[in-house]
Sequence to fold (557 residues):
Amino acid sequence: MTDPATPAIFGTAPSTLDAPRSDLPVLLTALRDDLRSVGYTLNGVAALLGESAQAALARDQLIPALIVTEAAGSSADPATDPAKAALAVVVRLWLLAVPQTERDLDAALPHVRTEGLVELGLVVKNDDGAVAAKVDLRPYGWEGDSGTGGSGNGGAELWVASDLAAHQQPGVLRHDHVLGIGQASTTLVQTTIRRPAKRALDLGTGCGIQTFHLLHHCEHVTATDISERALAFTRFNLLLNAEALRLDPADLESRVSLRLGSLLEPVAGEAFDLVVSNPPFVITPRNAGEHASDQFTYRDGGLPGDDIVANLVRTLPDFLAPGGTAQMLGNWEIPAGSGWSDRPASWLEGSGTEAWFIQREQVSPELYAETWLQDASEGRDRELYRKAYAAYLDDFASRDVEAIGFGMIWLRRPQEPRTGTALSRFEEITYPIEQPIGPHLAAAVERADWLDAHELADAHLVVADDVTEERHQRPGAEHPGVILLRQGAGLRRTNLLSTELAGFVSACDGELSVRQLIGALAALLGGGDDFDDDAFRAGLLSDVANLVRDGFLLPAA
Fold:
């Protein structure tokens, strides 16, 4: 079935796209079988490279992997291990972007062979006869439950095609560059709450990473992108991995719909149970008379400042079914004299949308400019770098921006008006957290819903299994001066306890209700003329609610 909105994507990819072809099923099957046979998997590559070279490659440092794979030898050398040599050829071709001989490549991939790779648009023959990679094609996968918990499905072993990255090729990246598996995309994968859903939307799919995960716990996924090349890469990846993703190549539309267009335009009037997005959120100086072709489509939304994220936060809830959620990454500007959360909070005013923002990083305008100029290899052109750097600083100064925040965003359209306070959280967590964090975010949302639906004073609570207590006091002191609760899992928060709150937590064994425990502490600590019993009880109850909300205390089973 062909999607009328994107006939080129679901038919033969036009040669003008310069993207892999997905209309050659026999060659796709041969490629898949060869990659599996040669051991081109996450575990296979890790075993070949070893821990140190693998870690360096994850940092985009190629030299250790080049040394290891060169030592593996050529398949033409009878003294080498043929299996290891064949895998080294494939790793050097696609992960390290080192041209290979046609003889070695044919030996390593005997079914698809070099000619098949050329026809698929994955390699090109150079004038000297060497075969060079046109794309990055690398193993990708996850263990059971999508690697993020909650889906109830097994893992997957895939291969993902994208454009060659900056460290794999010379010069500045092309403006319609299709991004591969990067830190941002894996962060969103790890952050997303995995629950069964009927309809999901992958907004700005790129090469399709989020769609692959969504297919394991959603009945149907719609993937959109403004780049036709990106959708062509996504379709190639879907069909190459159709077996692992449980797709019918002859009826892809029954489970996946690819839509061409800007942001939410391709899904106007539709509603989804889950939306995930790694949008083009990078804040980029706007220039008079610029065209879309001047922008890096994988990261630049074409709007000034952080408007791309602001607009999505405001409009995404209109595309959610009742009870539906959206999760995305984003940048936000922090004007001088403002708190980091002031601007994100203003995007939600009067909307009724439930939201949770977690700021993971905050950088200066200078560091922000350096990061994104390096990302596209713009530093390789000295004059371009100087002008672009100055443009970044002028742009931020025009809005009095003193810092830029980056973080995770969770939004929910309420199933119905809440009886209590809508979930609204803004917190900064810059230290390492447990990954994947998605299951822990899901548990936090469930606790917030539980607090909204129950009378806390009547509840019986216990201390979570991962919580420990620390007490600090000066030598010879009768009582500790500092009492801390620490979480060993999830967001790994630390909470400073008052004496009465520490006493409450130590008594939480599920036997007595919250009301009974607070009453006992009031009787023990009160009695003085200046003791305000009502204020004591209300304050302690509020503190207990915070500990439940953050997962230190849990309702007894």
User: Anything to note?
Assistant: The two ends are 50 Å apart (CA to CA). The first helix runs from residue 7 to 10. The CA atoms of residues 194 and 255 lie 17 Å apart.
